[in-house]
Amino acid sequence: MNQSDKDVKGTTTVGFVCKDGVVLATETRATMGSLVANKGADKLFQLNDRIGATIAGTVSHAQSLMDIISAEIALYELRNEKEMSMDAVAVLTSNILKSGQYYVQTILGGVDKNGAKLYSLDPSGSYMEEKCTATGSGSPYAFGVLEDRYSEDLTVEEGKKVAIKAITSAMERDVYSGNGYRLGTITKEGMKIYTEEEIAEIKSQI
What is the pLDDT of residue 60? Predict the structure, then answer.
């Protein structure tokens, strides 16, 4: 995640589907070229009580995109008196990205009546349903952990450790990733974003 439109590199985010929900995780470094511009950037967003997203890209674009998606979901559900499906949220996000105004790569995860779902979207608006994915400059290192440890049979409780391990691996090898962690889980009970203390406890168990 970067604060310059001219030099977008950096960040690591991961997301995957477990048998009882979705796990999303990021680190917290924002860069401007080779400068660490912010050590506490928030790249994990709660869009409503059952949908979350991670972002990699330009800070202002990411914040604006998340605000728009969150508002559109709320408006749809108010008008239609029903939940917006994860498929519809993915299409909505794709259509917004196709405007070309947002240099953002995002992972959308959530739970609807069809169960847990995860989508990866690039800045052009292309989207794919995934079981497990990672974005950003640290993603090759995160994928190394995910390919070794991820399984669709994982529970969310087990998946939290895998996600933190994947982000840690990226932080140790990618100079544009680092400083701290953000972790969220989504189950049929709703979305939970973990505190620094809770993440430290999970990390100590790895």
Answer: 81
Q: What is the pLDDT of residue 23?
A: 98
Options 11, 13, 28, 185, the catalytic residue = 11
- Known catalytic residue at 106: no
First to last CA, the chain: 26
Q: Mind listing the pLDDT tens digit for each residue in 133-190?
A: 999 999 999 999 999 999 999 999 999 999 999 999 999 999 989 999 999 999 999 9
Whole-angstrom Cα distance, residue 154 to residue 17? 8
CATH T-level assignment (fold) for domain 13-204 = Glutamine Phosphoribosylpyrophosphate, subunit 1, domain 1 (3.60.20)
For the chain, how big is the Rg over CA atoms in Å?
16
> Do 190 and 110 form a contact (C-beta atoms < 8 A)?
no
Pairing of strands 132-135, 115-121: unpaired
What is the spatial distance between Cα 164 and Cα 25, in angstroms, rounded to a whole number?
Answer: 7
Which pTM value belongs to this model?
A: 0.93
